[in-house]
Design brief:
The chain is α/β, with parallel strands linked by helices. It has helices at about 20-25, 70-90, 110, 145-150, 155-160, 170-175, 235-245, 270-280, 295-305, 320-325, 335-340, 355-365, 375-390, 390-405, 410; strands at about 5, 5-10, 35-40, 50, 95-100, 120, 165-170, 185, 205, 210-215, 220-225, 250-255, 285-290, 305-310, 330-335, 350, 415.
């Protein structure tokens, strides 16, 4: 059987993004050369050559404010196109491009490489109604918000029109895109390394005061990249007084940073952690804000969790939700669209109303004393991930898409074995 030699170009503003496993896998295949075009190199990937493009100059702010994000995307697209031309002059001509279109870098790929297949990572198409916009009554939703959201999709939709194929992580996220593009989009989750992300019965999590939490302790965990309303942080914080009234012995671990990934900062405080601490009265001795953790420390926290809370707007599904399931955690999650794709209430987790802090508190405290009876939910959660979201299966699906889209029998160089 022969093998194929290909030049493959990845593009993502923040290397490696969703391609941290895919790019090294393709680079490891004999004869392939993989280059990763990014704005700033923050980490290396085995066998992958980084290439950078300079940040574009900022817009002067003239013109309609709906168009500022689009103009920024055009500027990023121009920089990426120039970088691709420079790579070609240096001898690297891609046989395939795989790109995240979110910041505009994919806009002109097909203009500078018209014969080269392009696969996009189609993460989410924003909607003025029915997804995150207008979901939370505490967030102002004006006619400006609604109209601006439509224009926000311009870089994505322009890139989707020109690409050869795309990949969305979940069916729900694929469905956010216009139906006209659905035939282009395969569904492949980013993939969880289920051999590493697995139950750890002997794990411990050390608190700042030196106490070590272990499996069997009344530990409640909440995780988000950043603590913010999009991930239900307000609801979780408002549940804490009720949790502490019902279970004053519960230890609550809140893992995440103080930046804003989605939405906006609070008007009255530097970040949402300080805003909610000012709003909600609670016993701080048993509420532990850890900040962001290293990966294994984060997994240890999930390993000792008696109840893991995951809340999200109708938006992109977090890796942490699926990782918690792979760890065999008892996940109590919001009854929202992206979550319902992975969790069935009472089967492999428990679903609650996103906004009902009191109901969340009662659900969390109800499960703490009956851990053994709920072990089947934990087992089913892990089984769901192993069966449907395992990294090996995701990479195999990606391989099939790459081979199909690249048209290896036509475009790649065949080397006899």
């Amino acid at each position: 059987m022969g093998r194929w030699r290909m030049n493959i170009l990845f593009i993502h503003q923040n290397m490696p993004g969703q391609f941290k496993h895919l790019a090294p896998m393709l680079a490891a295949q004999p004869g392939n050369r993989v280059v990763f075009l990014t704005q700033t190199v923050r980490r290396s990937l085995p066998g992958v050559e980084p290439a950078t493009y300079p940040a574009p100059r900022a817009s002067n702010g003239a013109g309609h404010h709906y168009l500022r994000r689009f103009e920024d995307a055009v500027r990023h697209g121009q920089q990426a196109a120039r970088a691709i031309q420079q790579l070609a002059r240096s001898g690297f001509r891609p046989d395939l491009v795989i790109a995240h279109p979110g910041w505009g870098e994919a806009l002109f790929v097909k203009d500078v490489l018209p014969a080269t297949p392009l696969i996009l990572f189609a993460e989410l198409c924003y909607r003025s109604h029915g997804l995150d916009i207008g979901f939370d009554p505490e967030e102002e939703c004006t006619i400006d918000t609604i109209c601006r959201t439509r224009i926000r999709n311009a870089p994505l939709l322009t890139s989707l029109e020109s690409c050869d194929a795309a990949v969305s992580p979940t069916k729900w996220q694929k469905a956010s895109h216009p139906e006209a593009f659905h035939d282009k989009i395969d569904v492949i989750f980013d993939g969880i390394d289920v051999d590493h992300v697995r139950p750890r019965p002997a794990a411990g999590f050390t608190l700042p005061d030196g106490r070590v939490l272990r499996r069997g302790d009344p530990v409640i965990t909440y995780v988000a990249r950043n603590l913010e309303p999009y991930r239900g942080f307000r609801t979780f914080m408002r549940a804490i007084p009720h949790i502490q009234r019902l279970r004053p012995d519960a230890e609550i671990l809140i893992i995440g940073g103080d930046d804003v990934s989605y939405g906006s900062k609070p008007a009255t405080h530097p970040n949402w952690r300080e805003a909610m601490c000012a709003e909600v009265p609670f016993d701080p001795a048993r509420v532990h804000f850890t900040g962001r953790l290293g990966y294994d420390a984060y997994l240890d926290a999930l390993a000792v969790s008696a109840a893991h809370v995951y809340l999200t707007y109708p938006f992109v599904l977090s890796w942490s939700c699926v990782e918690a399931m792979a760890m065999g955690a008892l996940v109590i999650a919001s009854d929202t669209g992206p979550v319902r794709e992975v969790i069935t209430d009472g089967v492999n987790g428990i679903l609650v109303d996103f906004f009902d802090a009191r109901a969340l508190a009662h659900t969390v405290t109800r499960v703490l004393p009956v851990q053994a009876a709920l072990q089947p939910l934990r087992d089913a959660a892990r089984a769901t991930v192993v069966e449907h979201y395992a990294l090996g299966d995701s990479l195999a699906k990606w391989q099939r898409v790459v081979e199909r889209v690249a048209g290896l029998d036509r475009r790649a160089t065949h080397i006899a074995a």
